[in-house]
Design a protein that fits this description.
alpha+beta; six-stranded mixed sheet; 22 strands; 26% helix; globular; disordered C terminus; binds adenosine-5'-triphosphate; nucleotide-binding; ATP binding
Length: 372
């Protein structure tokens, strides 16, 4: 089933004005900073949030048509659209099997064999033997498995996933992610997945769209959007620093604060605007006193504004500098770094990617201000 949506939704001062096409069986990840309109978009697709103008259809079936001459919206329960959020929202008084059987009946519109199919679904999500348990007798991860079985058993034309792993611990999230991947590909369910987790994108998504302030900011394959980001949100999700600059020489880009970066990639001509991207983890903190020569690229001095936890170490946030460094905690301890410490930083050119910047009015940190 192919989803086509082009909607305008007004919520107070906020306006969502965005379109999506998701191919049959495709999993599209919808990313964006807090408040960019992801849940509003899912709500519009599910029929839970009123659409001001535009249309939503799945294959040839219109779900919403809002124009000057027509106001039509299929109610949520009649859309054949499944919605699964952070919370499993199971019926507490029903057993796991009856929760799933409810989904089966919703999809098939009849009672026949619902329990048998539900049993099969529970086995498919790794819960054989748990049929008679009520939600309160299941772990959070097991409850989410039941919710996935219930949603997919209804054979929805479109499945909407709103951060389905966000409230699970790392281990449960990982197994639910694997389960979703198997089930979505075997059922070829057209899916829109909202997430803040890069692992969800890498494991589940065929394609990625980023939203910023209610508009589509970028779209493409996961490797395009995360490997060559054009906004700070996607860069941050990918663990990259992203700086806007201008090409000053072959492979050299001067960024806003005057630092020069040498890198490689799809090099635009001298004088044109370019992005400079490099992993936060590729930034090294040098010994104090090893002051950089300002004439040498990729080295600069900063002041530590804050130290934060990061995967595998400590994130160094610099004062008045967009660059973030993620280093092993041993480096921070050895150099006794703390708020206010001066640091000498460096990134090897082999980690620096340069690519053209076409007419993007926003700078890489705009999204932070937008989500404040
Ligand atoms: N019921 C509502 N009434 C009015 N405005 C709302 C309502 N719900 C959300 N908004 C506004 O709509 C905008 C988009 O919110 P939305 O929840 O869609 O963003 P999001 O991208 O899903 O954010 P998050 O990642 O934090 O969940 C925000 O500015 C929010 O304040």
């Amino acid at each position: 089933m192919t989803l086509s949506a082009e909607v305008v939704v007004r919520r107070g001062d906020f306006v969502l004005d965005a379109g999506l096409v998701v191919g049959a069986g495709e999993v599209l990840a919808l990313l964006g900073p807090n408040g960019s309109g992801k849940s509003t978009f899912l709500g519009a697709l599910a029929g839970l949030v009123p659409v001001t103008a535009g249309s939503v259809s799945v294959n040839e079936r219109a779900l919403t048509r809002m124009s000057a001459g027509e106001r039509m919206s299929v109610p949520p329960h009649a859309r054949r659209v499944g919605l699964l959020g952070q919370e499993p929202l199971l019926f507490p008084h029903l057993s796991a099997m009856h929760n799933v059987a409810f989904g089966v009946r919703a999809g098939h519109g009849r009672r026949v064999a619902a329990d048998r199919l539900a049993e099969q679904w529970l086995a498919d999500v790794g819960l054989a033997g748990f049929e008679e348990r009520r939600p309160a007798e299941l772990s959070g991860g097991q409850q989410q498995r039941v919710a996935i079985a219930r949603a997919l058993a209804a054979e929805p034309d479109l499945l909407l996933l709103d951060e389905p792993m966000a409230s699970l611990d790392v281990e449960a999230a990982s197994s639910i992610r694997t389960l979703l991947r198997e089930r979505l590909s075997s059922t070829r369910t057209t899916t829109v997945l909202v997430t803040h987790d890069v692992v969800d994108v890498v494991v589940l998504a065929d394609r990625v769209v980023t939203l910023e302030r209610g508009r589509i900011a970028d779209s493409g394959s996961a490797s395009d959007v995360l490997g060559r980001p054009v906004n700070g949100f996607a860069a941050s999700l990918a663990g990259l620093n992203l700086l806007a600059g201008r090409v000053t020489g072959r492979g050299l880009v001067a960024v806003a604060n005057g630092h020069i970066f040498a890198g490689s990639g799809d090099l635009p001509p001298v004088g044109s605007e370019a992005w400079v991207a490099f992993p936060r983890s590729a930034v090294t903190v040098r010994e104090p006193g090893a002051e950089p020569n300002p004439a040498v690229e990729n080295s600069w001095v900063g002041t530590v504004a804050a130290l934060e936890p990061a995967a595998g170490g400590i994130r160094i946030v610099l004062a008045g500098d967009e660059v973030i460094a993620e280093v092993p905690s041993s480096q921070v301890l050895a150099r006794r770094l703390g708020s206010g410490s001066a640091v000498s930083l460096h990134v090897e050119p082999e980690f620096v990617t340069v690519y053209p910047r076409h007419g993007q009015a926003q700078d890489a940190t705009d999204w932070k201000r937008a989500s404040d």
